[in-house]
Specification:
This protein is α/β, with parallel strands linked by helices. The protein has 15 helices and six strands. One of its GO terms (molecular function) is phosphatidylcholine binding.
């Protein structure tokens, strides 16, 4: 602690005024508060006693109002900081002195602390509202102590503080008119913080084991350490299973969503295909309309066709068309006569005329074949 104090002075430099290095007001909030001298406060300015009314008016202007606030300040928290803020803002020009009790006095009159006295001193000098810190402060304020540090007023909450065989350790301060009350912050205190830790002891033991502390550091037995580590593994496994379940649920949800979309698209395409099929091949479809139109056309052209069909192999045109009749041959000419085959049929112009087929008849027969 002494080394820390010397380091702060070394950083301040020898060119700074002696008043600041010996417990005077800080120039900036970037510097930590200073520790009070063991010999007390020394100043060339005469220190005259003042009333609260005078201090509130801001007089005297030649020196600040020296306000003292003491405490244990174990596990320094926002409740402590707010109390010091109120003490700092009691008067327009305030020099706040904070007394911190030692471990010996605290263990004797209040109980065991979490932080050591050196840690508590360090916590106070880095509070922005504190101008000066008194180490190893007394449990009960004596007139000699008040005179030594030139204390004008003492700030504390007005609840009677019963300790060291006294109903209120600030009773004589109140009777002297030097007491100024501050308000406590509800919901936060050192006892509350310790209660939270004790209540969730197993949780914090497991937490510190995970962070690398040993069972000896945490004062737990070997069996308890193994039990806690096993429980940590089980919890990690549960967390892994939970994560996998969440991912699988998300995957199943996406698959269901995709399958629903596919089924919906398939149904839409199926309805579209069936509609197109019925539109083309249904009772009122385009295919039946074409067949009906072709049937009516064939019926309209059928009267022009000959009822006798042309035999296979018959000439496609009339023998009498396109050529003039040859002159009749002489009956006496033997060469003009050809022997007639017993199976040959006589071909005469009249018979050729009887076998002529109209072209529309061929078209009709072709259309009927296509229909079949």
């Amino acid at each position: 602690m002494v080394g820390r104090r010397r380091g702060s002075r070394a950083n301040s430099g020898p060119h700074q005024p002696q008043q600041q290095r010996s417990g005077g007001p800080r120039k900036t909030l970037r510097e930590p508060a200073l520790f009070a001298k063991k010999t007390g406060y020394e100043s060339e300015v005469p220190h005259e006693k003042m009333t609260i009314a005078q201090a509130k008016r801001g007089t005297p202007a030649i020196r600040p109002v020296r306000v003292y606030a003491d405490g244990i300040f174990d596990l320094f928290h926002s409740g402590h900081a707010r109390a010091l803020m109120q003490a700092k803002n009691l008067f327009p020009n305030t020099h706040l002195i904070v007394g911190v009790c030692s471990d010996e006095l605290t263990h004797k009159y209040k109980g065991y602390t979490v932080m050591t006295e050196s840690e508590r001193y360090e916590a106070l000098i880095h509070c922005r509202y504190v101008d000066e810190v008194v180490r190893d402060a007394p449990w009960t304020l004596s007139p000699d102590f008040l005179k030594k540090h030139k204390i004008d007023f003492v700030a504390h909450d007005d609840i009677p503080y019963t300790s060291a065989g006294s109903e209120d350790v600030y009773k004589h301060i109140k009777e002297a008119g030097m007491f100024v009350a501050t308000q406590r912050t509800d919901g936060i205190s050192t006892s509350d913080l310790i209660t939270r830790i004790v209540r969730d002891y197993d949780l914090y033991v497991r937490r510190n084991l995970q962070r690398g502390y040993t069972a000896r550091d945490l004062n737990v037995s070997f069996i308890r350490e193994k039990k806690i580590r096993l429980q940590n593994q089980v919890d990690r496994m549960k967390e892994t299973v939970k994560t996998v379940e969440e991912k699988s649920k998300h995957f199943v949800f996406k698959v269901e969503e995709k399958s629903h979309d596919l089924i919906q698209k398939w149904e839409e395409k199926s309805r579209e295909f069936i509609g197109n099929f019925l539109e083309l091949f249904g009772p009122d479809g385009a295919w039946h309309v074409i067949q009906e139109q072709s049937g009516r056309m064939l019926q309209a052209l059928s009267p022009y066709a000959s009822p006798v069909a042309s035999p296979r192999g018959s000439p496609s045109s009339s023998p009498t068309r396109g050529r003039s009749p040859s002159p009749p041959s002489s009956p006496t000419s033997p060469s003009s006569r050809s022997p007639r085959s017993p199976h040959s049929s006589p071909t005469s112009p009249s018979s050729c005329k009887g076998t002529y087929a109209h072209p529309l008849t061929s078209l009709s027969s072709t259309s009927e074949g296509d229909d079949e």
